[in-house]
Amino acid sequence: MRDTVRPRETKDGNRARLTAIIEAAREENVTAQELVLQSVRRAILDGVLGPAERLRQEELADVFGTSRIPVREALRALEYEGLVKSEPHRGFTVTSLDADDIEEVYDLRILLEGHAVRLALPLLTDDDFDELETLFAEMQSVTEPDQQLATRERFYLRLYSVTGRPRLVGLITRLRQEVARVLRWATITHSSSIHEQFYEAVRTGDAERAVTLLAGHYRRVAVLIRRYIKEAEARERADRRLRR
Amino acid sequence: MRDTVRPRETKDGNRARLTAIIEAAREENVTAQELVLQSVRRAILDGVLGPAERLRQEELADVFGTSRIPVREALRALEYEGLVKSEPHRGFTVTSLDADDIEEVYDLRILLEGHAVRLALPLLTDDDFDELETLFAEMQSVTEPDQQLATRERFYLRLYSVTGRPRLVGLITRLRQEVARVLRWATITHSSSIHEQFYEAVRTGDAERAVTLLAGHYRRVAVLIRRYIKEAEARERADRRLRR
DNA sequence: ACGGGCTAGAATGTATCCACTTCATGATGC
DNA sequence: GCATCATGAAGTGGATACATTCTAGCCCGT
User: Would the Cβ of A92 be found within 7 angstroms of any atom in strand C?
Assistant: First the structure.
């Protein structure tokens, strides 16, 4: 279990999983860079490509069966999503998050998602409620962690989209993406009742209660993740000391 | 004056101005794509490349004396900054802002910059004040609109950087960038005393007053810009009717 | 033994070339 | 006369090939 936070563990196994992701995405894309972009994004979010892992262009090009050009453009795009970073002549690596990053992201999520909730609630139509009801039911019915994450994503983004503000929704999406990876390993045992309470507040149009619930939840989650990361870092350091 | 909002007016004149921008940036960059990225960004912000203008890769490559590859990567990066947009097989165009965009951006700016002010003020050190003092003096001393914009940018971003939060500062930078273009044509006759009042609040550490001033100012500016854009759109429509 | 410079290999940055999509123009049928 | 379809040019998307930069390992000196 402990090696989940250490990069570059099973190169071959990961490559196979990456191939699976590609196959799943190949159908729906026209341009090669879209294929690469979506596949690599998914691979990072699913933890197939771990933090600090180096992304060699040629290797990726091989896996995708394309040249390096579309790979480079896709990576450039991911850089602006914050999932990878690049230095001239040194190539791209997957970004890693430390405790400070978690604090910043969750702080911003509280700010932006809270704002979105306040804007969205008064605008909700019956059609919106119909859809949200379905998404919420889905979210509550699934049990596998990955699926819980995915359905939750859909529910909340659908709610925020009601605001009709592309930038706001885009920023929130980006921030959620950045920490989605961490949620996978730091499997939070969060009471799913929080989402029930939140949705109840949404139903009744009580924006302030909804925002309070959301903020409180995020603060608790942030504390848990930060604790997890600090422990992981401590283990890492201890490991390095032992190995000498 | 009226043609300032219409794209593609003096192609040759603009090309000359673009060349000037490139020469200014050529020194400090290592990779070609960095050169292209920074130059095109500046060109858009300075209005040399107007809204809805199409950006042909080959033409830009010509101007920069490079191949199309670095151009494409730079444009892809600008797409994620929101300054250009692309459709597969149709290429890149400079984005244009309508009244709704202005409302969204200023709304987010109030939210994020307000947050940054609240975080920054308690953290300000004497060194920070020294630098801010210098930047503020510069800002108040220049008179040319472009320079006012540039110095204001430096002052506020320096202040926000005190928070030590790269994402927050990055998001604010992006949003300011997006509307910076509009500020050029819609030359706001804003009382510069607002910045004096704001800085006075910063000096005394009165975060709430600073935020209130900032929010009020942005709301007024947003109204002015929206009015300007709507008038420009109306003129545009009238022009089109006349031309038939 | 240990640290610093140097060389070969690898990986990135860029240029040139080809393939395919899109769009405008004009021909053709109704 | 009008709509529709073919056809060409223009332009983007992608592949291959070359230039440039970084890096890891080796040699050498101390």
Answer: yes
Residue A182: other Cβ atoms inside 10 A: 22
Beta strand A91-94 pairing with A54-55: antiparallel
Structural domains of chain A, ranges and CATH numbers in brackets: 2-94 (1.10.10.10), 99-234 (1.20.120.530)
Rounded to whole angstroms, how far apart are CA atoms A149 and A146? 5
Residue B240 has pLDDT above 80, yes or no: no
**Per-residue tokens: A36:** 């690469």
Could B105 and A166 be called an inter-chain contact, meaning their C-beta atoms sit closer than 8 Å? Answer: no
| Mean pLDDT of the B118-143 span | 95
The CA–C1' separation of A51 and D23, in angstroms, is 21
Tell me what pLDDT residue B187 has: 63
Q: What is the pLDDT of residue A234?
A: 83
Inter-chain residue contact A115 with B111, CB threshold 8 Å: yes
Q: Check whether residue B11 has its CB closer than 7 Å to nucleic acid strand D.
A: no
Burial classification of residue A177, based on how many CB atoms lie within 10 Å of its CB (0-12 exposed, 13-18 middle, 19 or more buried): middle
Q: Which residues of B touch A (CB under 8 A)?
A: 30-31, 34, 69, 72-73, 76-77, 79-82, 88, 104-105, 107-108, 111-112, 115, 165-168, 171, 175
Residue A184 has pLDDT above 90, yes or no: no
Q: Which site among A108, A176, A178 would you substitute to test the B interface, given the most B Cβ atoms closer than 10 Å to its Cβ?
A: A108
Which one of B30, B104, B168 has the shortest CB-CB distance to A108? B168
Between A and B, how many CB-CB pairs are < 8 A?
A: 51
Are A114 and A211 in contact by the 8 Å Cβ rule? The answer is: yes
For tokens 């130059």, what's the residue?
B39
d(CA A76, CA A59): 16
Cα-flanking dihedrals φ and ψ of residue B85, to 5°?
-135, 160
The rounded distance, in Å, linking the Cα atoms of B138 and A138 is: 57
B4 CB contact with strand C at below 7 Å:
no
DSSP state of A48: S
Residue type, A65: G
- Structure confidence by residue, pLDDT tens digits, A192-229: 688 999 999 999 999 999 999 999 999 999 998 999 88
Half-sphere exposure of B220 (CA within 13 A, CB side): 11
Q: Write down the pLDDT at residue B156.
A: 97
Confidence class for position A9, pLDDT limits 50, 70, 90: very low
The sign one gets for the Cα dihedral A68, A69, A70, A76 is positive
